[in-house]
Amino acid sequence: MTVLQAIDAHRHSEAEIRATLLARVAALKPVLRARLPACEAGRKVPDATIADLHELGFWRMLQPKRWGGYEVHPNTFFDVLIEIASACPSTAWVFGVVAVHNWQLALFDEQAQQDVWGDDSSVLVSSSYAPTGTVERVDGGYLVSGRWSFSSGVEHCDWTFLGGFVPTEPGQPPDMRTFLVPREDLVIEDTWRTFALKGTGSHDVVLDKAFVPEHRTHKMNDGFKCDSPGNALNPAPLFRIPFGQIFVRSVSTGAIGMAKGALEFYKEVTAVKVGASDGSPAVQSPDAQLAVAKAASALDQLVLVLHRNFDELMAAAEQGERVSVERRVAMRWDSSEAVSRAVEVVDSLFSLCGGRALFLDSPMHRFFCDVHGARAHYANRPETSGRNFGRVQLGLRTSDYFL
């Protein structure tokens, strides 16, 4: 990439920063498309792309200003994510889940932030939140062991967030935490050989009694209450959004971008395609016209709901108010349902592309596989969040607190 003017979050307005970032991602899209074959063949986002995302300032979007970040409105972050996904779904997936870790790290104890960013505030953090390991309480912290899967982008990161339960006394509520672990304590096992999201490098990581000091842990309950140790030094409203709300969108919003990319490709192909049997222009097909209309309308609705929800969350944070559990449950459903809607859009366009969509180098084939890969993530299961949304609508207590 060419040398770019640095973004000064203290000097530039939110609107100026947003306009700059959106212009930069528009210019990056052709580059990402050109690198897509290398991304998939290498089974990881190319180093050059990671470097470009640094130079463009994208990794810093949700990072505290005191650490060189921009503290942008979440809608700006997710709009950039959508555009990246419309060009390269694997890059967008890694970008979403890794960049959001700068937001969570801001909730940790100040010493943990110093540990990671003290010498280099551009350092990246990967994750695997499923509590599949074991945690042993010891003096000053914990010994953490086990195997965690699906750590997207781990090869590009110097630290990793891992989920686990801290041992509690009988009768006490569960204490799930995020454990912050340095790269040197990990063994990365090359396991990522898939037909979808091929370039995410979502390998397994293994720990064997790695010591994690107390200050490098973050309680999920603190994230739910929007009252974490880091809030004292990072008081911006951005960091008082419920953890569950911003995290689930980091793994669902990319699907909207994949559907947008599929629509862009379909429109390009249809504009010049003629029927093999009768030579009629594809743009004259009523089926093609209706499919494009439905896809465009669906994407518009998904983005409107995304923006509305984060406008509401940010407004509450700015006023120091709590968003009700009922609204959080509804927003959680909106997040997972967005992926199902995106799958429907891609499937409808794929079915109209004919046999050419079957070839491995077809962009439509990639979007088809990758959006179904996104749908497979646990957080993107609309059945689970939908049943819970229904429970709450019927007056029952929520069964999900990752909200």
What report would you give on this structure?
The protein folds into three domains: 14-117, Acyl-CoA dehydrogenase/oxidase, N-terminal domain (Butyryl-Coa Dehydrogenase, subunit A, domain 1), CATH 1.10.540.10; 125-219, Butyryl-CoA Dehydrogenase, subunit A, domain 2 (Beta Barrel), CATH 2.40.110.10; 241-393, Butyryl-CoA Dehydrogenase, subunit A, domain 3. Helix content is 49%, strand content 13%. It has eleven helices and eight strands. A four-stranded mixed β-sheet has the order 1-4-5-8. A four-stranded antiparallel β-sheet has the order 2-3-7-6, with no helix packed on it. The longest helix is centred in the last third of the chain and has 33 residues, at 286-318. The protein is globular, with a radius of gyration of 21 Å.
Set out the fold topology.
Layout: H1 14-42, H2 47-55, H3 74-87, H4 89-105, H5 110-117, E1 125-128, E2 134-138, E3 141-151, E4 159-166, E5 175-182, E6 187-189, E7 203-213, E8 217-219, H6 220-225, H7 243-272, H8 286-318, H9 325-352, H10 363-375, H11 382-393
Parallel strand pairs: 1-4
Antiparallel strand pairs: 2-3, 3-7, 4-5, 5-8, 6-7
Helix pairs in contact: 1-3, 3-4, 3-7, 4-7, 7-8, 7-9, 7-10, 8-9, 9-10, 9-11
Structure at a glance:
The protein is built from eleven helices and eight strands. With 403 residues, it is of the alpha+beta class. It folds into three domains: 14-117, Acyl-CoA dehydrogenase/oxidase, N-terminal domain (Butyryl-Coa Dehydrogenase, subunit A, domain 1), CATH 1.10.540; 125-219, Butyryl-CoA Dehydrogenase, subunit A, domain 2, CATH 2.40.110; 241-393, Butyryl-CoA Dehydrogenase, subunit A, domain 3 (Up-down Bundle), CATH 1.20.140.10.
